[in-house]
Structure formats: structure tokens, C-alpha cells
Amino acid sequence: MSGMKSGWDEQLEECRSRLGRILSKDSPKNTLLPRLRPSFSDDEDARATLPTASTSPADDFRRSIKVTSSQRAAERTRLWQENDKERQAKILAEAERRLKEAVSLRIEEENAANAEYNLQRMQREEQRQQPRRSEGAVRKAETPERASISLAPSRAIGASSPEVEEPSSSTDSGEQSSPSEPVTSPPAQEDNCKSAEIFNCLRGLQKTMHDLQAVLQNLPKPETASPEVRQTHERYKTLIAEANVLFRSFTQGGLRNSEMLAQVVARHEETKALLQLANAQLGTVSHIKTKGAEAEQRAKLAQQQERKLDVRPEQKIPQPSQPPQSPQKPEVEVKKEPVVSTEERARNIYEHYAEKTKQVRSSFPSLESDPSLKTLKSAVLFASSNPIAICSANSPMEVIEPFRKAFFLLRGAEVDTNSIKFRLSDHPEIVHCARYNMAKKFIDLAVMQTEEKNEVKLFALATFITELWACDREFGETFLALLFTEYPVLIPYYGKPSIKADNVELSLKKIGAISKFYAAIMQTDRTFLLRRLFPTKVFEGRNPHGAEGGWELLAGLANQDIEVGTTVLVLRNTLSIAGWLLKKYYEKQFSKLLIYVSRHMLPKIRERTPKELMGPVERLNELMETYHRTMTIAVPENRLSDDFWQQ
């Protein structure tokens, strides 16, 4: 232990000596111990005891440069960040301001468009209601439930629609309160109820006035009428003036109390009584007119009888001794119309439409030959063919939107293409070129739908062209001319061959597709597109080439000789697609026609058709057997139903 302790003591002494040399700066430069760094303590005694490291002026200068550079860099960074924040804030403020302006401008445009649309709709509704009001039928007074229709005077009634009681002919004096008596019920609620009752009575008075006006229009005019009818006309004018005063007072916010209600009810009852009197006078006038017409008819019959007997007052009746001479009847020449065979009639139709096709193709020579109109011609071709090309049966809008473009093009609206803007009035030949190109595009696109899965697109195109045809009959004639000229088998006319010998299969596919398209046009019996574009208008809904065209085609196929391949194809496609509509229209005649097809046409078709073309024959035979078993023909599956248009 003593030896170990002495060793420790020696090492400790050595360490003390070395530390002393360092502190006294007597240590050599190659000492292993590092120099002591200056202390950063706040204690002054410690600063005095610890040695400070010596630095050269160059080190101080470099250190000051580094500090200054770092401070400047920090300042630049801070300034850049502040400028960036200000710039971002300005950009966000400008974007927000522009967005608010755009939103406000969009709202103003929508409000203006909505106001204009509502005004036009009210005008159209008023024009549509005007003919209905002039009908001579006597209508019953409108019930309170029907009188709750919102009109302009109803704004004074209030936002809520209270239950309206039936207006009585006399006012209850107990409901009126004198000014000196206190009002037990809230005045706003009382005024509201009075306004509702007065409005219902005014609505009924208005309807009765319209009915009375319709009846008076059928009566003789006051200048030529009897005193009773003239007095009815004068009383009607007086009631109209009084009713206008009441309506004006109500709409301008006049006093609405029991007294006004009594006046309105009194005018209504008086108008009803005058309406009954006018109806009675109208019945009397009609009876007199009927008697006069019967007397005039009897006089005419008597004159005709006298002419037949040839007995006139100035002639003497022959004596019994003299045999009476029988009057000679005038000889009437009966012109017999020449009997035209079915083949000759089909040839005349084909020649007529062939000539029409030549006229259509030569109706826009300037657009074809003038180089300065090349851009206009390209724009017309694009605007007339693009809507038909994009038509699809995937959704209703894919049929409605192309129809809208084609409809407004033919109506003369401005069309914007990629090249120029134009309308039909810019050149007299644009409308002929557009009709021709649209008709040709319909035919070319229909011929391409040779696959069974594409049959639904044929129905979409058929709806498109049918409603466009109903709006522009000249376009329909152009379409028929091109269709019958290129495919005369649809007349049917067999003078021009329909099948090309070099490609029989492709020709039959095209005839099958175009015959399906033609049959789809026939069976389109409703207007969907026009109603979606103009919901407030009423359309006739009649197909310009409907069941009549289908019957002419079937009758022509039955009365002519059979052409191998085409007759059975056209017959089967027409019956399978449009047969349900023909059955609905012609019933017994249609059944007789199908019996003739089964008994006479099918055996001949089987005899003449080769084995490789027996597919349509078998399908026609199956269709005939199904019809004779069920006496019905099913509606085609791919027809665009009501559910499709309600999407």
C-alpha cells in the first residue's frame, strides 16, 4: 500500500509542476495540453484569474466582416420575407376582388336572363290562353280550391295561404266593427282573411266575365241585334267598367273590408245572371238560325225537284189527249281515270324524286364553284353535319343538344363555327346546301349501323329527323328524294338494281340498315325534343311520314313481283319495327295483308331465294307464326321509351 501511495504522489506532483509551467507561460510550444479558452463568466474575479487568449488584428477584422455579412444576410432575408408576404397579400386581395366582381356580374346576368325568360313565358302563356278563353262553352264558377292560383293580386294577400272560405252573397254585419269599438282580433290577420276572400271572388268574377265575353261573341252585333240582345251588350260594358274599378282598387292596395267584398259578390252574381240570360238568347238565336237554314234547305230541295220535273209556271201542262213528253235528262260526261299499275306508279314516284334530287344538288352552284365562298361553304357543311354525327342514344341530352343546334340552324339563328360566324340570311344558297348536307348525313350514318347492337342509334336518329322534318317540310322532301333515289327498293321500285353484283353481302347489309331506319321513322309518333326545348308551347305531335308511309310500302311490296334478297329484307324489317303501329292504325286490313303474305308471298320467296340468303326468310316466317298465334306484334326493344326521355 505504501508503494502504491508513493506512486500516486509522484504523478500528482508531476501534474502540478506541468500546470505551473503552463500558467507561468514557461511551457514549451509542443506541449500536449491544449490552450485554455477564455471564460465567458460574469464573475470579475474569475475573469481576472483566467488567462485571455491573444488574437491578432487580422483575426478581429475577419471576425467583424463575418458578423457584418451575417447581419446583412439576415436583414436581406427578413426584408425579402416581408416583401413576399406583402406581394402574396396583394395577389390574394386582387383575386378576391375579381372573384366578387365576377360573381356579382354573373348574378346580375342570371337575374336579367331569368326576368326576361319569365316575361316571355308569361307573354306566351297569355297568347296560348287567349283562344281558350274565347270558347263558347259555359263553365261553372270556380271553386275556392281552384281560386287559390297565385296571380299578381295575390301578393297583397301575404306569404301564407290561409284556408279560403266560399264567398257568401251577403256580408255579415257582425264582422264589421265601428271605429269607436275596440278591435279584438289583430288587424293584419283580419285584413289578410278579407284579402283572400276578395281575391277569390275577383277570380271567379274574372272567369265569369271571360265566359260571358265568349257567349256574346256568338250573339249578333249590337247594330243588327234585337233590343234585348242590344241591352245585354250594354249591360256587359257597364259590368266590365265596374269590374275594372274593383280590380284596380284591389291591386293598388285599396281598402279591403266587408263593403268591398259585398260589392265584388254583387257584381259576380249579376254577371252570372247576365251569363244565363246571354246563353238563353244564344239558344234562341241558334234556334232561329236552324229554322232558317231548314227552310232554305227545303226551298233548295223544292227547286231541285222542279228542275227534275221540268215544270215551270210559264209552261202549260199537257192535255190528257196529248201524250206527255218525258223530260230529257242532260248527258253528263263521266271522265274515267286511267288505270295505273303498281309498277308504273312506282316508276312515276321514282322519276319524280330523281328529278327532285337533281334540282336539290344544283340549288347551290355559287357555294360549289366560287372560291371566295370556300370558307363559308366549309362552315355550312360543318354546322349542318356535326349535330347529326354527335347524336347518340346514351342519354336524352345527347339527342336534344344536337337537335337544338340543327333546329336553330334551319330557323336562321347565328351559328358559330371554328372558322366564321354565319346565318341563313347571309347567302340565299346556304339553306339549300344545309338541307342537302343534313339529309345526306342522315342516310350515310344510318347505312353504317349494320350491326344489331347499333339498332338503338337508328331510333335516336329517327326521332331527330322526324321532329326536324315536322319543323321544315322542305327538308323532309329533300331527305325522301335522296333516300328513294339511292335506295328505290323502299318505294318499292325494282327498275333500278339495288344490289351490286360485286359485293352482295355488303349491299344487303346496307339495305337492311336503311330499311330499319325508314321503319323507325314511320313508328315515331310523339314529339319529345320540341317539348324539351319549348316546355310552354303545345305541339301537334303528328309524324309527317308515319303510318301512311308504312302502309304504302307494304302494299307496294305485296302488289309487285318479288325481288330476291331485298323484298323479304325490307318486308321483315318494316313489320318487326313498325308493325305494332300499323296494327294499331289499320287492324283488320293489316291482318288481311299479313294473311296474304303468309299464304302467297312466303312460298314464292322460299322458292326463289338461294340457301345462303335464307336467314331473313326464316325470321319473317317466325314473325308471321308469332302474329297468327298471338294476333299482336311487339314493340321493338330498342325503341326510345318514356323512361329514357325522363332521365
From TrEMBL:
Biased composition regions of type Polar residues, renumbered to the chain: 171-187
| Chain intervals for the UniProt region annotation (Disordered) | 20-86, 118-191, 293-341
Main localization is nucleus
What GO cellular component term, any one, is given?
cytoplasm
The answer, when asked if ATP-binding is one of the entry's keywords, is: no
Q: Where is the composition biased (Basic and acidic residues)?
A: 73-86, 122-145, 293-315, 330-341
So where does this one cross the membrane?
A: none
Q: Which Pfam families match?
A: GLE1
GO molecular function terms noted in the UniProt entry: inositol hexakisphosphate binding; phospholipid binding; translation initiation factor binding
Tell me which Gene Ontology terms the entry assigns under biological process. poly(A)+ mRNA export from nucleus; protein transport
Subcellular location as annotated: Nucleus, Nuclear pore complex
**Record keywords, A-Z:** mRNA transport, Nuclear pore complex, Nucleus, Protein transport, Translocation, Transport
Q: Does the keyword Calcium apply?
A: no
Query: Do you know which InterPro entries this protein is assigned to?
Result: GLE1, GLE1-like_sf
Q: What does this protein do?
A: Required for the export of mRNAs containing poly(A) tails from the nucleus into the cytoplasm. May be involved in the terminal step of the mRNA transport through the nuclear pore complex (NPC).
Give the similarity note: Belongs to the GLE1 family.
- What PANTHER family has UniProt attached to this entry? GLE-1-RELATED, MRNA EXPORT FACTOR GLE1
The protein's name is mRNA export factor GLE1
Q: What is the lineage of its organism?
A: Eukaryota, Metazoa, Ecdysozoa, Tardigrada, Eutardigrada
